[in-house]
Each structure stands twice: as C-alpha cells, then as structure tokens.
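TEACHING EXERCISE
Course module: macromolecular assemblies
Task: Read the component lines below, then compare them to the predicted structure of the full complex.
Student: A.B.
Group: 4
Components provided:
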Amino acid sequence: QKEVEQDPGPLSVPEGAIVSLNCTYSNSAFQYFMWYRQYSRKGPELLMYTYSSGNKEDGRFTAQVDKSSKYISLFIRDSQPSDSATYLCAMSAGTSYDKVIFGPGTSLSVIP
Amino acid sequence: DGGITQSPKYLFRKEGQNVTLSCEQNLNHDAMYWYRQDPGQGLRLIYYSQIVNDFQKGDIAEGYSVSREKKESFPLTVTSAQKNPTAFYLCASRTLNYGYTFGSGTRLTVV
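Instructor-supplied answer key:
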C-alpha cells in the first residue's frame, strides 16, 4: 500500500462547478498537510498548508483534514478554466525538515 | 522578487554523458531538495540538503550527485550511471513550518 493515494483522474467539470479533490494516507504520524497546483511544464506552487484536523479556507479554496479517517480534501468553489491543472497533495510528520510525501496528483480540466 | 531559478529549461544528454542541472534560490532558505517527476508518478526525492556542505540521499539517489557549497546553490549532476534519466527535474527550497517553493523545472531527455 502506498503511503499517499490520490485518484489520478482526469477530472473534467463545467465552469462554475464545485470541485472536490481527495487523498488518503496510511501513516498516522502525518500532521502537516499541503496542496500544490501544477500547471503543465511548470513547477508546483503551494496552495494550502494546514496542521492536524479541521478546515482552512483561502478565497475559493478550502482544505479539509480528517485525521481519524486519514483523508484530506481540497474544495474549489466557482471553478474557473484557469484552475485547470494537476493538483498534488503532500504531507509530513513534523515541523522540522521531515520528509514530505507527495501523492501522484489529480488532473483537473474546467470546461468553459 | 524572491524565488528559485532552475536552468536550463530543456536539456539533452547523450548516452554515457554526465550533465549538471543548476538550481539557485534567493529566499534565504536553509533546506534545498531535488525531485524527479515521471508521468503518472508522484514526486520522488533524489537528494536534499538542510545546511551548507551537508546533504543526504533521498529515495532514488543512485546515478545522481549533488553539492552544496553555498546556501543559494544546489546543483544536481546526472551521471552516466543513471540508466533512465529522461524525466522532469524539480528543485525546491523550504523554511521551517512551511511548504516547499519549487523552481520551474528542467526537462531532461536522453538522445
């Protein structure tokens, strides 16, 4: 079993839809959770950085962590064509330079 | 603006040749990383460095080498021992309690 699993998609939604992206993980030591957005042929950029369980909102993006289920989600409201990208989840156990484990990414297309 | 600069953007390597990928950051971050990204796979850690003149192997270090002589610079050499080097290479840096900042990547192709 991989440490972090993520549905690769592709996921295709109409403009304005609410998008739900998800990851599951197996290591209960993970406490810090991240979401990155990667456009084609570019480096990933950090979207959300959260600690432990709960929700965090930033504009149209909401990150949700359920440590009891080992499940994290990223919700995108009012999706735009510019949101079309690959979304990577990532997680680590501590605040030091602990190893960060990435999911394989979900490819999202928002159709105008 | 602060950030990470990777060069070149595209690189072609002949069989048996060593090539070096450049990574420079002006974010004053202590830790720097090299990842490899292949289609359909997550990022795989090659090498990382938390301080100048020190670095550690990641999960797939065989066939690669690095140096960290300056805080700002963390070059990666892909040696002829790396049998399948064609991939997208990403350099990143990090400060404590925050996620990575990535460069724009180098796409390496064996010809």
